[in-house]
Amino acid sequence: MTGFLFELSFFLAAPVWLLMIFAPGWRGTERLAASPLTAVPILAVYLTLALPVLPELWAAVSNPDIDTFRDLMALANGAGAIWAQVIAWDLLLGQWMYREARRLGLSPLLMGPLLVLTILLSPIGLLVFLGLRAARKPTPVPVR
Question: Is 0.70 topped by the overall pTM?
Fold first, then answer.
């Protein structure tokens, strides 16, 4: 069951990512990307995985050190919960990047690959986006 939930967390986020990458100008994509509720199903998976290991999770976050975190990650539910958390936060980050790119008038041809990079390596994707954002002045984008 834990393996299924681990995989489910990504598949719950994938439709939003696909729309932002392949249908960036569609009005439905804009509405979906504007909603933080996209993370709720993924956070439900997180809770399902986290609750059975709550003492270990609490120990890892309340007094963080590498060994306690390593112990949490050695548990299937611990690793699955952290994965679901990462997927949820990455999705929210990607939605912000998508909306900010639209506001700035950045090309979808630029943002598509950058969003893919963010799915795979979100810290690098965010750094690249922040650099682009700093170099760009906002230009209004017509809403379709």
Answer: yes
